[in-house]
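User: Show me sequence and structure for the first protein, then do the same for the second.

Assistant: Starting with the first protein.
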Amino acid sequence: MDAYAAVVLAGGAARRMGGVDKPARTVGGLPMRERVLAAVADAAPRILVGPPGPAPAGVRVIREEPPGGGPVAAAAAGVALLGPGTPVVALLAADLPLLTRPAVGELLAQLHAGHDGACYVDGAGRRQPLCGVWRLEPLRAALDHLATERADGPAGGGVERVDGPAGGGAAPLAGASMRALLAGLRVREVPWVGAGPPPWFDCDTDEDVRRAEEWAR
């Protein structure tokens, strides 16, 4: 598969790092978000979802609604910018400093007919949905379905609705889980068998960053 877009999610609160701008932390001399964006340098467009700030040339920056609303809200913000002609989107966390272009290529190669997406699984078989590639139309339909479901609320009670910064607008995807988003999609689970460290390794703590530094040498 040749044509694909990339949406990189960089809006997390990094509570286990004291609230720092985690994707700006460097590994191997480069901010983690730039390492992730470099791994999808051949994607078009490339969209970074997170706080306003500098970004590599050609990368569009947008904020999720509401700010800090979580990965599903951020994914929705990025996907909303993609045209209907986009076949596939790589959906990636910005704290994956070990992600490489070959690792992304493996996901694209594993996205066979009959699957809506492909994502890596870790050594314990757990899905890493923010290290995956997804067919745009099934993903967009899943976002729409989950937004409607959460806005309407389950039978017998509603869900909390979060207003965006402009006021008055409900953001039903705020706080939604990736598991709920992908529940109805046909997902190909891909173990990492390539050379080098696991591309799905994310950095949630200072110790994770130190481990990534050692691998990146």
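Switching to the second protein now.
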Amino acid sequence: MHSLSHTVANLDRVPEPWCDLSSSYRPQAFRVQWASGPWMNQEAHALRRQVFCAEQGLFDGDDVDDIDRNVPSVRSLVALSCLAGEPDEVLGTVRIHEALPGTWWGSRLAVRRDWRQHGKLGSTLIRLAVCSAHAQGCTEFLAHVQAQNVALFRRMHWQVLDEMVLHGRVHALMRADLDHYPPCATPFAGFVLTQGAGA
């Protein structure tokens, strides 16, 4: 018969549950899609506030504007980390809307600071933004792009049309070459990425 002290000693050696994740765990799969539930939209707006208000100081407290409040076609796109195939966290976002029939705009492109080196989250958000608008009848896709991001957009077949200062920062008015963005008719499924993808 085992003593109580022996039983307690054995309990001390019970291993941690097998499903606990290491503190160094990094997701290996990602999905970029149209936001499909309240939590995705909430997290997208929280990320926008973090980047454009707290980090960059472009807006005071919140970046929500008339487009968010009043434009029926406005959509948030999200880059999600996945755990066991299910969406886990919002790591990036961008907003799209139709301003005039056939003319779509992208704005509020943001990727969480600790994921900006992934290399594909931002570019895939851009790709889905244009491809999904293209499937909605877009004939022109425009964006005001901060100066530090112009090179990325040029590599992705965007053309600079003009330059201006918005919110105290230099921006380029840019237009996507739709020939490089085939229509995506399944934006809620979007695109799947894996960790370690290059730029």
